[in-house]
Amino acid sequence: MRDIYRSLLTALAAVLALWLILGFWPLSAGSRVALSLLVVLVSGVVLWRQWRASQARAEAVRDLVDENLPPEDFQGAVIFACGDSTALFGSGTRYRETRQGWYLLVKDAEQLPLLAQHLSIMRPALTSQVSVMLATLPEQHQSQDDFTQNLRGWQRAVVQCRLWLSGLPPVWSVTWVSPPGACIEEAPAWFITSEHRTGLQVHQPGQGNLQLAEWINENEASGRFGRLSQVLWLNSLLDWQRTSVESVLTENQGELPALRLCAQGFCMVPVSGQSGSLWQQYIAGITTLSPERSEQTDALPLPDLLLPALPRRRGISGQMVFWRQAGLLGGIFLMLAMLASFVNNQRLIRSVGDHLALYHHLTGKPPAPKLQAQQRLRADGALLDDWQRRGEPLRYRLGLYQGLRLVAPVEAAVSDWAPPPPPPPVIKKIVQGPKTVRLNSMSLFDSGKYVLKTGSTKMLINSLVDIKAKPGWLIVVAGHTDNTGNPQLNQELSLKRAAAVRDWMRDTGDVPESCFAVQGYGAGRPVATNDTPEGRALNRRVEISLVPQVNACQIPDTASASSKDDDVTDN
Questions:
Q1: Which of 150, 189, 196, 476 has the fewest Cβ atoms nearer than 10 Å?
Q2: Does residue 63 sit within a domain?
Q3: What are the backbone angles phi and psi of residue 465, rounded to the nearest 5°?
Q4: How many CB atoms lie under 10 A from the CB of residue 209?
Q5: What is the residue-wise DSSP string for 21-87?
């Protein structure tokens, strides 16, 4: 179950990180993509390593079946029986259950952290009820150095359990030794000491707990000598315990912390031993006597009477740990999201503030830069108005949005200046082109002649009403013929006819001859085809037109014309 919670926490952390990157932090598009890919890659690697670790852990505790573990709703103490604990269990038995506790056999120090990890995964609600019992049988050890190294190994294993048991579990020790020879047949006596009780207490079946002095002075004549023997035996056992067990566990060894024993128990019951054991060596060194060896095939009694003396710990289930860690991740995410929102709002204020400062700095002369700055402010105002109506983006929220206080200054700045009106359109003077009057030559001249016919004067006057000489204008008279006859003669004829019309206009209107230009084109500029009589009739013509030409002529007794006399039209 804990592996599932860890995977869920990893996935939750990845989702929150992606949300923070894509939704809050002011990053460029490329940075967002790169960081998102990095988060996905890292979370994938972490999930894969967690899966591999769970597989390796399952392989390590394969021989520990779940039937040996206490049920999930077990209310008693869960004891990891370490040290010389094999004598507490029958052959092939991995656990023993009593009314107050559930004893799990731990064969070696390497198995202890694995068992703690397995229990925390399979029975996470029971981790607060776990304690470590260090069983000691001095009659089964012969080398003090090997015994000390064995204790060091168990000490190191207990420290490794703190990762899975929410800290160091309570550690307590129990020592079993054979009683003096005179007390072999008596009921086993338990001697108990703990942090919560003063002095050494004695427990015998059916008698409860008594102080050691009270137990010795009980009025039992038959057992008084045996009790004195046990007290002497106990004093020796306590001295051995302090020098051989407590001094090893309570010393710091490099990075290995010391262990504090919360309770100790001593039981005098027949124990199967070895010749030359540590207990025999110790007793022989004090009394020069060697304790008798005994053979015991039954399992040693369990120290249930010490269980009430163990410290109580508040249980933390795997689900509680998960929600705590999920809450921590959520808190970190909220803190970083608020920081990102603050940064985004400060950038918004700085950007709009820069636009306002530039806008107020410009004077409007020329108007183009200020008009551009005003358009930028209009875009800012439209964006802020849209956010006000639809809601600002998520990256500006979390109670830190500052855009509302920017709306008023932006609107005021946009309204306090208007660009000057555009200049009136430039009126272009279009000089009217030469006005041309076309006269039929056959109406003015006889065929082949260049002298005006009698009666043609009236037609000239009617046709030339709109032709008025003006200062600076040139009167151009051009003669044209059809293509009948000799081209050179036609050209001379057209020139003489134009000169005749010029002479009439000069003499009639009193216009200086310098105001006239006479041209003869012959048949070179036809206006119609010469293949038909009608076309040839149109080509036989005299054209009179006015062409602007500065200082071309000056009409007598006429003031110089100004530009207002020009024949112009307004576009």
A1: 196
A2: no
A3: -60, -45
A4: 15
A5: HHHTS---HHHHHHHHHHHHHHHHHHHHHHHHHHHHHHHHTTTS-GGGSPPTT--SEEEEEEESGGG
Return the amino acid letter for 178: S
pLDDT higher than 50, residue 371: yes
Q: Say how far apart CA 268 and CA 296 lie, in whole Å.
A: 13
Q: Tell me, yes or no, whether 162 and 293 share the same domain.
A: yes
Q: 441 and 544 in contact (C-beta within 8 Å)?
A: no
Residues 99 and 145 in one domain: yes
Instruction: Let me know: does 444 contact 460? Beta carbons within 8 Å.
Output: yes
Short-list 183, 177, 189, CA closest to 278: 177
Q: Is residue 64 a part of any domain in this protein?
A: no
Report the pLDDT value the prediction gives residue 322, as an integer from 0 to 100. 77
Domain count, the chain: 4
Q: Compute the Cα dihedral for 125, 127, 133, 134 and give only its sign.
A: positive
Structure tokens at 349: 């204020």
Query: Which SS3 state, helix, strand or coil, does residue 124 take?
Result: helix
Give the pLDDT confidence score for residue 559 in this predicted structure.
42
Q: What is the mean pLDDT of residues 323-327?
A: 86
What is the Cα–Cα distance from 568 to 563, expressed in whole angstroms?
A: 9
* Cα(87)–Cα(19) distance, integer angstroms: 58
- Reported as a single tens digit per residue, the pLDDT across 135-182 is 999 988 989 999 999 999 999 999 998 888 878 899 999 999 888 765
Query: Which of 493, 558, 545 has the alpha carbon at shortest distance from 517?
Result: 545
Check: CB of residue 269 under 8 Å from CB of residue 300.
yes
Residue 96's Cβ-count burial label (10 Å; 0-12, 13-18, 19+) is middle
Which strands, in side-by-side order, build the sheet including 516-522? Answer: 436-440, 541-548, 473-480, 516-522
Do 252 and 113 belong together in one domain?
yes
Which of 415, 333, 414, 428 lies closest to 379, judged by CA? 414
The residue type of 252 is N
Burial profile 361-378: b = 16 or more Cβ within 10 angstroms, e = fewer: ebeeeeeeebbebbebbe
Give the lowest-confidence range in 115-124, 217-226, 395-404, 477-486: 217-226
3-state secondary structure of 3: helix
CB-CB contact of 103 with 96 (8 Å):
yes
Q: What is the Cα–Cα distance from 481 to 450, expressed in whole angstroms? A: 12
Whole-number pLDDT of residue 3: 67
* Model pLDDT, residue 66: 63
